[in-house]
Design brief:
- Helix content is 29%, strand content 30%.
- By secondary structure, it is α/β, with parallel strands linked by helices.
- The chain has a single domain (4-196, 281-331), classed as NAD(P)-binding Rossmann-like Domain (Rossmann fold, 3-Layer(aba) Sandwich), CATH 3.40.50.720.
- Strands 3, 4, 5, 8, 9, 10, 11, 12 and 13 form a nine-stranded mixed sheet that branches.
- A hairpin with a 2-residue loop joins strand 14 (285-293) and strand 15 (296-304).
- Helix 1 (13-25) runs parallel beside helix 6 and helix 1 (13-25) packs across helix 10.
- 46% of the residues are buried.
- The protein binds flavin-adenine dinucleotide and oxaloacetate ion.
- Residues 9-15, 34-37, 42-44, 47-50, 165-166, 182-186, 190, 201, 203, 234-235, 276, 278-279, 304, 306-312 line the site of flavin-adenine dinucleotide.
- It is found in: Peroxisome matrix.
- GO terms for molecular function: D-aspartate oxidase activity; FAD binding.
- It comes from Chanos chanos (Milkfish).
Length: 338
């Protein structure tokens, strides 16, 4: 019997992954996603969805490794299955190149992607402004397909979906035993977390079907990611900028920088421009607390603040959030709601 009521707030890649993990693994939980935006209108939808990461300063490296590996393994299984195109998950090969030789030539995720190696001198000849490069195959997870696919998986596991703006967790706690906060940037107002801030990102969607391999400048500001139906060319990383309007100067800068790396982009056709606000935070917050609601203890699990790596870490942090829910319910089973 499903006697524990769980509300997952947020229907981006983090909320949907977390809801699916809980609904599929804990048979005694009834899971409801509550969000004010769903695919195709979340931040997750417009992201390139490429899997790799930079390191967060205060999370043990081992934990970051397992977040990455769990997500990679989960998505790899989909990428090599017959579900791949419906789920929008594909393998993607290419280069990350650096103008200066990085201090760490083998990032923590290098052992989880496929075929990671330094680029050869012949490969580097294409990029005369760059001194060093890494070649590897990773995963590209296109959320405009992946989120609807997760929604379907959630419903199959008995999950429900409600479109609503949550104003207050106290209020929500009257109807649920567990709240999982996957509201991304929304956590700034929902839980008053001033550590979460927007990191604005603008990208172009380009029709250039001859491009097959990604190219990313290690500074994180210029990248070209061929996908299943268009190429994502980016980007910008503007901290504390809340503007969701397309900026023409940003678009010109993106095109100019990307075409320097890949001159054939000039022959492409721009299909659209998109802006999203990354849920920036020094470290993602994946932890639990207890809330007192009308004399009852309600479990509140947080899973937000993934910055530019929410897709990369989505399944791994969802599994951690699931672990926190399971462990907490084991320690303190919920009392009946009055
Ligand atoms: C240009 C760009 C490119 C990117 N590329 C990549 C990439 O290649 N790889 C990668 O890993 N990451 C990438 N990212 C980062 C990635 O998009 C984010 O880390 C990720 O989308 C965060 O997911 P999320 O589910 O936490 O948040 P979101 O997708 O923003 O979802 C938040 C959810 O919470 C809901 N919500 C918030 N507040 C409330 C409320 N009060 N009531 C109800 N619902 C609420 C929203 O409606 C929404 O459903 C990119 C981001 C940008 C902007
Ligand atoms: O940095 C990248 O290559 C893509 C990304 O995650 C982002 O723009 O946030």
């Amino acid at each position: 019997m499903k006697n524990v009521k769980v509300a997952v707030v947020g229907a981006g890649v983090v909320g949907l992954s977390t809801a699916v993990c809980i609904a599929e693994v804990l048979p005694y939980c009834s899971v409801t996603i509550i969000a004010d935006k769903f695919s195709p209108d979340t931040t997750s939808d417009g992201a390139a969805g490429i899997l790799f990461a930079s390191e967060f300063p205060d999370i043990p490296l081992e934990r970051q490794q397992h977040w990455f590996k769990d997500t990679f393994d989960h998505l790899y299984t989909i990428a090599v299955s017959s579900q791949a195109s419906e789920a929008g998950v594909l393998l993607s090969s290419g280069y990350q190149i650096f103008k200066e030789i990085p201090s760490d030539k083998t990032p923590f995720w290098s052992k989880y992607v496929l075929g990671f190696r330094p680029m050869t001198d012949r490969e580097m000849k294409r990029f005369p402004d760059h001194k060093f490069g890494q070649a590897f195959t990773t995963i590209k997870c296109e959320c405009s397909s992946y989120l609807p696919w997760l929604e379907k998986r959630l419903r199959k596991a008995g999950g429900q979906i409600i479109r609503e703006t949550v104003k207050d967790f106290q209020q929500l706690g009257r109807s649920y035993d567990v709240i999982v906060n996957c509201s991304g940037l929304g956590s700034r107002s929902l839980v008053g977390d001033a550590e979460v801030y927007p990191v604005r990102g603008q990208v172009l969607k380009v029709h250039a079907p001859w491009l097959k391999n990604f190219i990313r400048d290690g500074d994180g500001k210029t990248y070209i990611y061929p996908g299943s139906s268009y190429v994502t060319a980016g980007g910008t990383r503007q901290a504390d900028d809340w503007c969701l309007e397309v900026n023409k100067m940003d678009s010109e800068g993106i095109l100019e920088r990307c075409s320097r790396l890949e001159p054939s982009l000039h022959g492409g056709q721009i299909l659209g421009e998109w802006v999203g606000l990354r849920p920036g935070r020094k470290n993602p917050r994946v932890e639990r607390e207890w809330m007192q609601v009308k004399g009852r203890q309600v479990l509140l699990v947080h899973n937000y603040g993934h910055g530019g790596w929410g897709i990369t870490l989505s399944w791994g942090t969802a599994l951690d959030a699931l672990g926190l829910v399971r462990q907490s319910l084991h320690e303190r089973p919920p009392k009946a709601r009055l």
